[in-house]
From TrEMBL, chain A:
Subcellular location(s) of the protein: Cell membrane
Keyword Glycoprotein: no
Residue spans crossing the bilayer: 12-28, 35-61, 81-106, 113-133, 168-186, 216-239, 251-279, 286-304
Taxonomic source organism: Aminobacter aganoensis
Membrane topology designation: Multi-pass membrane protein
Cellular component, GO, one term: plasma membrane
Record-level Gene Ontology MF annotations: branched-chain amino acid transmembrane transporter activity
Lineage top rank: taxon: Bacteria
Protein keywords: Cell membrane, Membrane, Transmembrane, Transmembrane helix
Name of this chain's protein: Branched-chain amino acid transport system permease protein
Length: 321, 293
């Protein structure tokens, strides 16, 4: 168990990370400022993935559908029905909740390899559905959300999400919310039961815990966090397309989490940031970014199973959550 | 055309799909059955088979049948060698841990896809069929080549079945599948069997791709559909069951042909994928398989 001092140290570290991200808003050059805003939203996606993969040990190959549920849940009503930003964001989260609950109820009846394949198939159904209703979603081409639709009116002032500074700070706020939510979950009783399920599901059940209910809660929370990332992506960057529902976006969060360190709260951010820049830099002299992704996956699985933060925690920083 | 000839045409097209699908899925099923791993890169071995077939047929001059015959022999051999090397270098080292294997084969998928894109390019390219014969039915003419695909696939399936059930190699494979440790205790080189089975699975996919490439062009992204369809077939047929795989391939191929002819192909895929996911959820041993330990 963690003592008082350790809890204080953990919270201090997380607050410091958020403070650093806010401070970066004022010093980063324009290009990297934009990149970091995008990375933060994608890191929230990775954090949602990590909750299920890292802490419960459930490897899903279909998380793109939760991200895309948020993306479309927010983007479609805003585009077609003229909803405001706040209801659209809520719509995205609602869509994520419904999809996650339905998928969780069905997919959790399986385990291991079958779970991976079932989640991948549900995600494929979701992806094909977005193509099938191309009349409303415009498929791969996607929808571009207009600038004037992406504004919040607060009393007399307006919050313009297309403004780079507002966009960056909104991304930081979302990231902070997801980070502290994850931290609270993994330090709670529920979080400890989840880790127990990962380590030995049979024994956890024998101790009297309802493992199915605990796993279902984890799937739903993970789905909601990913949907929040998707909804924020639609609202902040103004693009909604089927690409985000494709199998590639189910694999990327797995890569980010493995790289940063599964079952660490800050690992997803580090993995996403690192991978984004690896692709950004390599694309300067080669277009073969898929080669980089593939090689990274194999190298990670062969020699670096615990990821960056996982290795740090094992060697030096045992207190990292 | 009236309804019946339409249906006949849809069924014939469906049978061609089934023939290719059965071979591809059999490769996936063998690897899963013997090694207990899911090979996500299976579709890329299929794609590689098709792309190599294009490269070989363009390199060989003369009658198209000559190049095609060369492709039918060389392409699976090259793909098998690549699969064997990746099994020895990567999968053996992660000790066939199910999750690590999936991640590693996803990595392999991306690497193969990128190499195909870099060296072969983004274009879809056709391969000339080895012969052009039209068989005239009362209502329409049908490609003789397509019918020969069905025959070739049936022969290969029969050959695989004979090897598995009647030869010493098949016995060794079945022993490894049944109980890896006991097989090892009896002196079976399990590691070498794994390498060979992985290569064999990839070769079956490559053969299927060479057969289909004269009617469906070679493209670097063509591997995803066969992968998903093979998953579907293997799941419906019951993992590791040859008979189930063939029946399921027939079922999926023919119904896909008929549904695609009368409805939208996207809708057909949505329905098939959803049905299979439900089969996996509610009847994990497949429709034809029996519950295992």
């Amino acid at each position: 168990m963690t003592g008082e001092g350790e809890a204080a140290r953990v919270y201090a570290l997380h607050v410091a990370v958020i403070a650093l991200l806010v401070a970066l808003n004022f010093v980063l050059p324009e290009y990297h400022h934009g990149v970091l805003a995008r990375v933060l939203v994608l890191a929230v996606f990775a954090m949602g993935y990590n909750l299920l993969f890292g802490y419960v040990g459930l490897l899903s190959l279909g998380h793109a559908m939760f991200f895309a549920a948020g993306l479309y849940g927010a983007g479609l009503p805003l585009y077609h029905l003229g909803w405001g930003v706040v209801p659209a964001f809520a719509g995205g989260i609602g869509a994520g909740f419904v999809v996650a609950l339905a998928v969780g109820l069905l997919a959790l009846r399986t385990s291991g390899v079958a779970f991976m394949i079932v989640t991948m198939m549900f995600a494929q159904v979701f992806y094909l559905t977005t193509l099938y209703f191309g009349e409303w979603t415009r498929g791969d081409e996607g929808l571009v959300l207009q600038q004037q639709a992406r504004r919040i009116t607060l009393g007399s002032g307006t919050l313009d999400l297309t403004n780079p500074v507002t966009r960056y700070l909104t991304a930081v706020a979302l990231f902070a919310a997801a980070l502290f939510a994850t931290l609270a979950i993994v330090r709670s009783r529920h979080g400890r039961v989840l880790v127990a399920i990962r380590e030995n599901e049979e024994r956890t059940r024998m101790l009297g815990y309802d493992t199915f209910a605990n796993k279902l809660t984890a799937v739903v929370i993970s789905g909601i966090i990913c949907a929040a990332a998707g909804a924020a992506y639609a609202l902040l960057f103004g693009y909604v397309g089927s690409t985000f529902a494709s199998v590639q976006y189910s694999i990327l969060p797995l890569l980010w989490v493995l790289l940063g360190g599964a079952a660490t709260t800050l690992g997803p951010l580090i993995g996403t940031l690192f991978m984004y820049y690896v692709i950004d830099i390599t694309s300067g002299f080669t277009s073969a970014y898929m080669l980089v992704v593939g090689a990274m996956l194999i190298l990670l699985v062969l020699w670096f199973r615990k990821g960056i933060l996982g290795t740090l925690r094992e060697r030096w920083l045992g207190w990292l959550p | 055309m009236a309804f019946f000839p339409h249906l006949l045409l849809a069924t014939l097209e469906g049978l061609v799909t089934s023939a290719v699908l059965a071979l591809t899925a059999l490769g996936l099923s063998l690897v899963f059955g013997v090694m207990r791993i899911v090979n996500v890169a299976h579709g890329e071995f299929f794609m590689l088979g098709a792309v190599l077939a294009w490269a070989i047929t363009t390199a060989v001059s003369g009658h198209p049948a000559l190049g095609f015959a060369a492709a039918l022999v060389l392409s699976p051999l090259i793909v098998g060698a690549i699969a064997w090397v990746s099994e020895r270098l990567v999968l053996r080292r992660v000790e066939y841990n199910p999750e690590a294997t999936i991640v590693a084969t996803i990595g392999l998928l991306y690497i193969i896809q990128q190499l195909a894109l870099t060296f072969y390019g983004p274009e879809a390219r056709p391969v000339a069929p080895p012969f052009n014969v039209r068989i005239q039915l009362p209502w329409f003419g049908y490609s003789g080549y397509k019918l020969s695909i069905i025959a070739a696939s049936a022969l290969l399936l029969l050959a695989t079945w004979l090897v598995l059930t009647r030869t010493r190699i098949g016995l060794i494979m079945r022993a490894t599948q049944y109980d890896r440790e006991t097989a090892q205790a009896f002196g079976i080189p399990v590691g070498r069997v794994y390498g060979a089975v992985f290569a064999l699975g990839a070769m079956l996919a490559a053969i299927a791709a060479v057969l289909i490439v004269p009617i469906q062009q070679a493209h670097y992204l063509m591997g995803l559909d066969p992968l998903l369809l093979s998953f579907i077939v293997v799941i419906i047929g019951g993992l590791g069951s040859l008979r189930g795989t063939v029946i399921a391939a027939l079922l999926i191929g023919v119904s896909d042909g008929i549904i695609s002819m009368f409805f939208s192909p996207t809708l057909a895929k949505i329905i098939a994928t959803l049905v299979v996911a439900m089969v996996l959820v509610f009847r994990p041993q497949g429709l034809f398989g029996t519950a295992t330990k």
